[in-house]
Amino acid sequence: MAHQPEACQPGILKKDGGAGLFLVLNAGSKNGISRKIAGISAITETVSAIDAAAGLSCVVAFGAAMWSAIGNGTHPKELRPFKKVSGRKHAAPATGGDILLHINSTRHDLNFELARALLKHLGPAVTVIEEVHGFSYMDSRDMTGFIDGTANPKGAAERRAAALIGAEDPAFAGGSYVLTQRYVHNLAAWEKLSVHEQEMRIGRTKKESVELSETVKPPTAHISRVEIKQNGRELKIVRHSMPYGQARGDAGLFFIAYARGLGIFESMLASMFGAAGDGQYDHLMDFSQPVTGSFFFAPSLKMLAAIR
Ligand code: HEM
């Protein structure tokens, strides 16, 4: 019989519904909260049953310090706290977080119902340090007006290969590393650029998301900075980012992505923020600023159920 890969939390590989709710929590007593973790899946199932067609999911993931308290002395090879990334012009701050709840479905009301039920269950031992309600905007566009997700790995096999830990760390197979960052866009300044100037900053055409040719695409375009090769192969991540915001106030992108290692994210961020040593940075960052940043580890379903 073929070896079955360890099952991951379903929200990691699925195609997103258009409504997201992201919660980053700190736990006062990390040991104390661990016995409540197992209850999260049952609560998600109960709320999900209200409308199965809405495809409600909740990925649960943990920061490095939290995992040290609940992981029975075991630690995923690459799990470490997010460190501030600084370049000459821009920086990406590190803001921590013990628990990430990544909720997604087609319905904002179900997401909200689940978030409230989970926070009630976890009780006063957790503090909410970030709550962001995301939505799908137009035809899957970021608020810059560009389609977000074009080069995301498609299909279960490609997404598994990009997002899930495998034989390189067998005790944690089926788990995944997560990067979250909330970006605030300077839309007023962005909208003053011509479409051509915007396209040179993204590296794709605005209307159809066609990649600019190598002769036209600058090395400072966003997609030039995040295309990172290792041994001749491009490193892949699975993105589930969503626009969020207020009509008059902060608006931008809640960036969230899954990968089989944290080093991939560190390389992409170093390249974006001008810390990769080639003197270049991502010129999209002149128009958007990250205000939070954290790394998490999302254990496999089996490992999540075993946390006591
Ligand atoms: C302000 C924040 C960001 C915005 C508005 C943004 C937007 C976009 C857009 C419009 C694309 C092109 C279409 C697509 O392939 O999805 C793209 C591609 C991509 N982005 Fe971002 N992004 C942001 C932050 C990030 C961050 C923080 C990372 C990684 C740490 C990242 C990684 C990628 C990758 C890997 C691709 C695909 C590149 C390729 O293979 O063509 N992005 N992004």
Description:
Helices cover 26% and strands 24% of the residues. The mean pLDDT is 96. Helix 2 (39-48) packs antiparallel against helix 4 (108-122). The chain has one domain (10-305). Strand 11 (242-245) and strand 12 form a beta hairpin. The protein has helices at residues 30-37, 39-48, 64-70, 108-122, 156-163, 187-190, 195-202, 222-226, 263-272, 301-305, and strands at 19-27, 57-62, 85-86, 91-92, 99-105, 126-135, 176-185, 229-230, 233-234, 238-239, 242-245, 251-259, 288-290, 294-298. The site of protoporphyrin IX containing FE (HEM) has 26 residues, from strand 7, helix 8, strand 12 and helix 9.
Please give the structural blueprint.
Blueprint: E1 19-27, H1 30-37, H2 39-48, E2 57-62, H3 64-70, E3 85-86, E4 91-92, E5 99-105, H4 108-122, E6 126-135, H5 156-163, E7 176-185, H6 187-190, H7 195-202, H8 222-226, E8 229-230, E9 233-234, E10 238-239, E11 242-245, E12 251-259, H9 263-272, E13 288-290, E14 294-298, H10 301-305
Antiparallel strand pairs: 1-5, 1-6, 2-5, 3-4, 7-12, 7-13, 7-14, 8-9, 10-12, 11-12
Bound molecules: protoporphyrin IX containing FE (HEM).
Protoporphyrin IX containing FE is lined by residues 142, 144, 146-152, 179, 181, 183, 202, 204, 209, 222-223, 226-227, 237, 253, 255, 265, 268-269, 288.
